Amino acid sequence: MAIIVKDLVFTLHTRNSTYQMKVDDQKTLLHTYYGARADETDFSYLVEFLDRGFCGNVPGTEAERVYSLDYLLQEYSTVGSGDYRASALCAELGSGTCDCRLIFDSYEIREEKYSLPGLPSMFDSEREKARTLEIVLKDAKEAFYVHLLYGVFEEHDLITRAVRIENKMDHEAVVSRAMSLGVDFPRNDFEFIHFHGKHMGERQLERSPMVHGGIDIRSTRGASSHQQNPFVILAEKVTTERQGQCYGFSLLYSGGFHVRAEVDPFDQTRLVMGIDDEDFRWVLEPGSSFTTPEAIMCFSESGFEALSHSLHDAVTEHLIRSPWKKKRRPMLVNSWEAAYFDFNKEKLLTLGKEAAEVGLDMLVLDDGWFGKRDTDTSGLGDWFVNEEKIGGTLGQLSEEIHAMGLSFGLWIEPEMVSEDSDLYRAHPDWAISVPGREPIRGRQQLVLDMTRDDVVAYLQERLVSIMDSAKIEYIKWDMNRSLAAGYSRLLPKERQGEVRHRFVLGVYRLLEKLVSRYPDLLIEGCCGGGGRYDMGMMHYCPQIWCSDNTDAIERLRLQYGTSFAYPLSTISAHVSACPNHQNGRLTPFKTRGICAMQGTFGYELDLSKLEEAEKEQVREQTDFYKKHFALFQYGRYYRLNSPLENRDHTAWEYADPEKKEAIVSVVFTDLHANPKIDTLLLRGLDPNRRYKVWLDGEEQGSYTGTALTRAGIRLPIPKENYDAYQFYLKEEV
Q: Is there a catalytic annotation at residue 342?
C-alpha cells in the first residue's frame, strides 16, 4: 500500500522510495526517513535526545533540557518555536511577533489525489491514481491550523506536497512565509545542484557542496525567471547519470520562489521550498485560508538518468492536460526572426508559401499585428487587429494561410501594457506602479495589475474576440519584463504583500478561461524565452520557448540543463538563420536541425532567403522528424555526455521504451588536427537483440545491444566546424 499509518507513524511508499513521519510524545510531527524503499519500521529509533547548548526547550520539557526543536528533524518547522534553522512557516497570530508552534491534531487518508483550486497541480490519470494523506497540525495555543497535503504516485517515485493554512481564531493572522515543503535529512554528504542563468542563457547546471549556514536560490522577479529555476537536486557526492542517490524538488509555480538548503551545527541537512518570501505578507481574516503552490519530491537510487525519466513521465502523464500531450506538435515557422515588426500581408503569405513547400505545418504571426505596434515601445494592451498592416481581417489572413495547407498561430503578451497605448490612456490605474513614484520600466512597458478582476475580464473579452474572429490553432503567450515594486490600487496598505502571489493567480485564472473555452488550442509559454520555464506553466502550456537564444551550440547547454526535470516535448526549439542573430556564430544547417530536434521542432528564419540546397535540407529534416516524432518527443531521453565537461562533442539519445529503435545525435564542438577516434556507449537497448545502424541515412552494419551498450559505437571524424551526425538504430527481425 502507498500509505500506511500505525501508531501515528505515517509511512509513504513509492515503487523505489519510502518517506516517513511520526507524531512523538510532545505531539511534534517528526521527520524520520526519506530514501530507498524500506519497510514500515519506526525509524524514530535513530533519534537521540541530548542537551544541546543554546537550544531552547519545548514547554514542559525544560527539566530534562534534552528536547529541542532546534536539532530534531521536523516535517514542517516554524519561526518562533525555538528552531533557529530555515523554517517553513512564519505566522503572527495576534501577538505582533511570529510565535506559532505546531502540534498534531488529526489525519485523513483519501483514495484520490487532492486538488488545489486556482493552482496547477498533479492529477490522477487512467493509468495511475494517487492516494492522499492529509495531516492537520494546530498551533499549541490558538485555533490556527496547518493542513499538510501529500499525494503519492507510486509508479513515478513521486510525492506531491502542498499546505493549506486555516485561521479559525476570532482575529486576523499574518503569514509572511509559507513554504510548500520542508525536508530534513540526518546527514551531510550531499551536493546541491541548481540551474542558474540569464536572458539567453537559462538553466545552466551548477553543482556545489552543501555548506554549514546555507545556500539560497530565489527569484524576486514575479516570475520563475531566467536567473534561477524552481527545480533543484540534492545528490550524493558520488552521483552520476547512472549511479548514486539523488532527490529532485520542483515547485509547480510561475511566480517568485525561494529555496533554501542548509547544514545545521549537527551535520543535518534541511531543504525548504515555496513562494518567495522577500515581499510576501498574507493577511488571513477569521474563517479564511491560504493554500500554497504544489511542490513535488522525486527520489532515484540509480543516478540522474532515472530521476529525469520519472519526472518526464510524471509531467507528461499527470501535469500536462492538453490533448497535444501525446500528439505530434506542429512544425512551425515563426515570423519574428524572419521579419520582426517589418511585415505586411505579402511577406506573410510568401513566408507561408515557402513553409508549405518545405513540409512545415504552421505559420505563426509574432509581435506587431495589433494596435499601433511597429516597435516595442507602443501598442501593448490594444488587442485590436491592425487590419491596415495585415491587409484585411485576421480571419481573411488565416483563411489564406489555411488554404496553403498550413495551420495558423498568433503571438500575444497579455500581462503587459505600453504607456503609448489607448488602454493605458484610458486606464492608467490598471498598470502596476506605486502612487507618487515614477514606475520602473522594462522594455519601455509596464505590467498590468493581474490581481484585478476588471483587468482579467478585459483581457478575456479581447482575446476571445480575437480567437473567435479567425481560425487560430496556436497561441504563443509571452511576458517580456520582470515585476519591480508590487502595488495594487485596489488593495489596502496592509495587504500589498499579497500582490505578487495574487498576480500569478490572475495569470492562471486567465489561462484557465482560455484552456476551458478552447480545449484544442496549443498554447506555448514564453517569457523573453525561458524566463518562466516551470511546471506551473506546463499545466496550461504543454510546450515553452526554451530561450530567445537560438544559437545551436549554446542551446546544447541550455537544453542539457532543461532536460534534468522537464520532458523534451516541453522544449520549444527552432532552426535559426546564420550568422546567428544573438551571437553571430556560423553553424552548419544540418547541425542547427539536429539541435532543434531536441525539442518540438520548428524554424525561426526567413525561408525565402534560403538557397535551394538549404531548402532541400529543410524538407529532409521535416520528413525525418515527422517519421520519428514519437521517439523525439516521447522516447526515453539519455544524456550520453555533458556539454559542460566534454569539450569535443555533445551526444544524446532517444530510445523507444520497448527498445525496438533509437536515435543518437552528436554535435562536435571542437576540432583537432590528427584527431583521436571516439566511441560512444549507447543506452536504452536490449542486450539480447540485434540492431541495424544507419549514419545519416547510410547503413553501417548490424550489432547486438550488448556490443552497442558495452563497447559502444565509433564516432565519425568531423568534417567542419560544429559538424553533427545522427545515428538511427532499428531492431532486426
A: no
